Amino acid sequence: MKTLRAFFTTSAIALLLYSCVSGKGALKQGDYYDAVIESVNRLRSSPNNKKSIQVLTQAYPLCIDYIESGIQDGLKSDDNKKWRKAVAGYEKINFINNQIKTSIGASKIITNPQTRFTELANAKEKAADEAYNEGINFMMKSSREDYKQAYYDFKDANDFKQGYKESIEMMTQAEFKATIRVAYEEINNSNINYGSFQPTINSLQRLFLSIKPAGQKDTVPPHQYLTVRFNGFQVNRPSVSTRNENIPRQIKVGEQKGADGKMQDVLQTVSADVTYFHKTITADAYASVTITDAATNSILQNLNVSGPVNWTSDWATYRGDGRALNGTSAALVQRRETFPNDQEIFNQAIRNLQGNLNQQLKSFYSQY
Questions:
Q1: 268 with 251: CB under 8 angstroms?
Q2: Which of 147, 148, 176, 196 is the most exposed place for a label (fewest CB within 10 A)?
Q3: Nearest-angstrom CA–CA distance, 188 and 168
């Protein structure tokens, strides 16, 4: 218990020293915001920490001035994100106010922390307009990447001010135009009932990517056709390899009195000839993937995917004295040759195939 208490005490001291050093280091580097947050956090758990008090006293006015001057300089510039950056700055000042007020030690040092609630509300209004107009500009460029950026701009506008102008409608329109639509078809080229790849395909669905069955009607024609063909399953004949080992071992068989009159162990060397068996069964499930551009009919991706399975079993037999067997050999001679469950091997191959198919398709569609 004393050791545990000492550990926690040492850890607390180390954490305290680290916080002080990191806050002081941030101050020296001109990272006033981090210096303030570090010192406030330390004063929350240690209200009388002298180093943190010193850091907070020095860093707080510098931090507020740095953020405020950065906002004002930005507003005088031609930066097309200046109001959004102003929002971020004012939110930082308000966050610092909240942190100080919830820290007993910090609130004693900074008794009247500054806030920018009015300024923030005004900046959000202008940031919404700024983001909305930028979204309109991206929409006019008419490329898929521009539509994606427009979507995020309209989303920002709506986040800054709920229902700002037609931000929700424009966000929906931008998403629609930015989305790659894929018509999916699954073909079984075998007589095996493997289930369906539909769950694997559905897991690919995300923002700006829509994959629907080829037979399902969509509002617009697809941009791509995705065809997955299941080509079969194969299990190979078992392969068994063997290895022989002679294991000698000295064992105690009794005791006898030695020349010095003391009892001594009587040892005997025993041995066993062990044969180790290693059986392997390999299996695989196969599929092929073709992704075609709907407009040009050109092939964008053509690949084969498999789901290999490697089943193994180990056991051993021996001749001779069983007392010579060690831990590993003793355990293996207790085993007998085993035979896999054919259905489980098939199921595992299908699971592996689905997993590899998912990785390949995710890799391809990551560029979209």
A1: yes
A2: 196
A3: 42
pTM greater than 0.85 (yes/no): no
What are 210's strand-pairing partners?
181
Contacts of residue 178, Cβ cutoff 8 Å, sequence gap at least 6: 144, 145, 147, 148, 150, 151, 208
Q: Which residues pair with 316 in a beta bridge?
A: 276
Please provide the DSSP assignment of 298-349 as one string.
-EEEEEEEE--EEEEEEEEEEEE-GGG--HHHHHHTT-------HHHHHHHH
- Nearest-angstrom CA–CA distance, 325 and 318: 9
pLDDT in tens, 293-329: 999 999 999 999 999 999 999 999 999 999 999 999 9
d(CA 275, CA 87): 75
- Both 43 and 106 in one domain: the answer is yes
**149 and 137 Cβ atoms separated by less than 8 Å:** no
Residues 195 and 332 in one domain: yes
Identify any residues that bridge with 262 across adjacent strands, giving them in sequence order: none
> Final residue of a domain: which of 161, 178, 195?
178
